[in-house]
Every structure is written in structure tokens, then in C-alpha cells.
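Severity: low
Component: inverse-folding endpoint
Summary: output formatting inconsistent between runs
Steps to reproduce: submit the following C-alpha cells with default settings.
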């Protein structure tokens, strides 16, 4: 079995759903259920015996040690993180506690467990740390895309905390021999995405008749990765990645934020047109840019293709259509997130 941390969040939940749908071994799913953790993301697994959900903190060393001793996972996949840049600007301490201190304590528990395993189980064990391209900083319009050897130049409290966690994971491999793997992904999008992030926010606000806020001129460029493509990359890295290595995971879809918003509006015009016949683009509102806003991220995902044979299956055009359709088909999920009802947990 595998232990997944942060498996009730956006990417983590999609990973767990995809993992079990493809018939892989059971999952123990550890999540603290902060605002971004949503058990409704995992509703399809209710009643299944191959998914055990445990509410708890990766920083709770005794809890993690107990789970490792009881279930003896062959791998730990670490999604647990605070991840929203705007929130990190307003309140950075939670990001340091979860992303830095929490990762450290998780590594300590995993190292102690791994050290006591028989040699054959030690060799087969993996710790997969899921990180972000934001650790690399910002690129000029003509600069080459980020490779795995690009220096870390984080520009927000969020990206700085993730860079610190990446360094810790690397250090635990080089110092203690812990068999780690790290992935740095570009912007994910798709089902179950919490609607404070750009794409779901645009969809939800558009349907509600609210403004569609665009930071600055909207020309900030990001690479966009459909979440199930990210999940398939993670499975492949876990299966065949070289221990101690980092793999960039991208969608080969560099687009300015304003183009993303226009695309979403056009799809909504097609699939759920406004009653007055006006395009949703009329709701676009430019707002003051956020502090330290990186201008461009771009991922060079050549290494994972060359070494592991992985490429994304979705184009942006196919992935964004699936995403918009999912939100149109799941108004109850959106309503529960907006009302806070999803946090009424036992």
C-alpha cells in the first residue's frame, strides 16, 4: 500500500481517485482538512476497503510514525502543503509551519521508519515529494524554460516555503540515503479545484454574474497542466524515477492569464450562455497587481519524457473543455464550497 498526505486537496484527491481507478494497491490518506481539504472530493470512494482516510497533520510525528508502523507502506507521496500565493502574502506563518516544519517532521518520521526496514524493503521504498515550478522564480519573455538545474529564486512566501521543503528532501537523500524523488509541476487545473484559483474562480464568478478579476494587464504567463496528466506523471515517476532525482512536469501550454480567461468565457458562452446574450467577457475587470507577482513561468519537461517516456495526454483545448464541463455538471460541489458546508465534518 501507499501513504498519501494531503489526499483530500485538489491534486492529492485526483491522484488518489486515479490511483485506485487503475487498480493500484490500497491507499492510506492523511489530510488535516484545512480549508482546502474537502472530503466531497473523495465521495466516490465511500464504502471502499482499499481507501482509509485519516484526519491528521504531517507535523504530528507520533501519528505519522504510528501509521507507518501499522500499514508499512512501500511509498509515501507527499502532497500536503499550503499552496495559494495570495494567502501566503497575507499570512505567511501557516506556510512556514506546514511546508517547512511539517515536511521536516514528516521526513523525520519516514526516515526513522525506513531505517528499521529490512534491506530489501529499504531498497524498494520511495518518498515522492510533490512541489511547484514557482521555486525557480520568474522568467523574462524570451528566457529558456525552467529545467531541473535552474537555480531556486522564489519570490513569494509560498514559493520560498516550497523551495525550503525541496531542499530538505534533497538533504535527507544525500545525508541519510532516504530514497526520495521530487517533482516540480506547472499550474494544474481540472476537477475539484478550489475556487480561489484563477480558472475555477472565473467559471464560478462568471456563472454568478460577478466580476472576473484580472491582476494588472493579465499578461502573466504560466504553463498549464491538466490534473490527471499530472497524476499520470507522478505514477510514472514513482514507478521508474531515479532515486534522488528531480523531474519537472509540465503541460507544454504557455499562455497569458488573460488568454486563459478569454478561453473560459468563450466556452461558457457556448455551453451556458448568458440570458441576455452578452459574452461573459463583459464581466472581466482588471484589478491592481499583487505584490511580487512573477511575470512568467515555463517548464521544460524534456527530462521526464526522455527518461521515463511521459508526455501529457491532454492539450489545453481538450483539458479546459473538460474542466468547464465538470464545473457546470457539479453545481452542488461548488455551492458547498462557497457556503462552507463542505467543512461540516464529523
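Observed output (run 2 of 3):
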Amino acid at each position: 500500500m501507499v501513504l498519501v498526505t494531503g489526499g483530500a486537496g485538489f491534486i492529492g484527491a485526483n491522484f488518489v481517485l486515479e490511483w485506485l481507478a487503475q487498480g493500484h494497491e490500497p491507499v492510506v490518506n492523511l489530510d488535516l482538512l484545512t480549508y482546502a481539504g474537502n472530503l466531497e472530493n473523495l465521495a466516490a470512494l465511500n464504502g471502499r476497503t482499499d481507501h482509509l482516510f485519516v484526519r491528521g497533520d504531517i507535523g504530528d510525528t507520533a501519528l505519522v510514525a504510528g501509521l507507518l508502523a501499522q500499514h508499512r507502506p512501500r511509498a509515501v507521496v507527499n502532497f500536503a502543503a499550503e499552496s495559494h500565493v495570495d494567502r501566503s502574502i497575507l499570512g505567511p506563518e501557516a506556510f512556514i509551519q506546514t511546508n517547512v516544519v511539517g515536511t521536516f517532521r514528516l521526513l523525520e518520521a519516514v526516515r526513522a521508519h525506513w531505517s528499521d526496514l529490512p534491506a530489501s524493503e529499504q531498497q524498494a521504498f520511495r518518498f515522492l515529494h510533490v512541489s511547484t515550478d514557482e521555486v525557480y522564480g520568474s522568467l523574462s519573455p524570451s528566457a529558456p524554460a525552467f529545467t531541473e538545474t535552474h537555480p531556486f529564486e522564489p519570490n513569494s512566501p509560498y514559493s520560498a516555503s516550497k523551495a525550503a521543503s525541496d531542499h530538505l528532501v534533497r538533504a535527507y537523500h544525500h545525508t541519510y540515503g532516504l530514497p526520495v524523488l521530487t517533482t516540480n509541476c506547472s499550474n494544474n487545473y481540472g476537477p475539484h479545484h478550489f475556487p480561489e484559483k484563477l480558472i475555477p474562480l472565473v467559471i464560478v464568478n462568471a456563472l454568478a454574474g460577478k466580476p472576473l478579476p484580472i491582476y494588472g494587464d493579465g499578461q502573466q504567463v504560466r504553463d498549464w497542466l491538466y490534473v490527471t496528466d499530472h497524476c499520470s506523471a507522478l505514477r510514472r515517476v514513482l514507478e521508474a524515477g531515479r532515486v534522488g532525482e528531480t523531474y519537472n512536469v509540465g503541460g507544454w501550454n504557455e499562455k497569458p492569464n488573460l488568454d486563459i480567461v478569454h478561453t473560459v468565457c468563450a466556452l461558457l458562452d457556448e455551453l451556458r450562455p448568458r440570458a441576455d446574450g452578452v459574452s461573459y467577457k463583459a464581466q472581466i475587470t482588471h484589478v491592481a497587481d499583487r505584490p511580487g507577482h512573477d511575470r512568467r513561468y515555463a517548464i521544460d519537461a524534456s527530462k521526464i519524457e526522455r527518461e521515463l517516456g511521459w508526455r501529457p495526454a491532454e492539450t489545453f483545448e481538450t483539458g479546459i473543455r473538460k474542466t468547464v464541463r465538470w464545473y457546470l455538471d457539479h453545481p452542488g460541489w461548488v455551492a458547498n464550497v462557497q457556503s462552507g458546508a463542505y467543512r461540516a465534518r464529523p
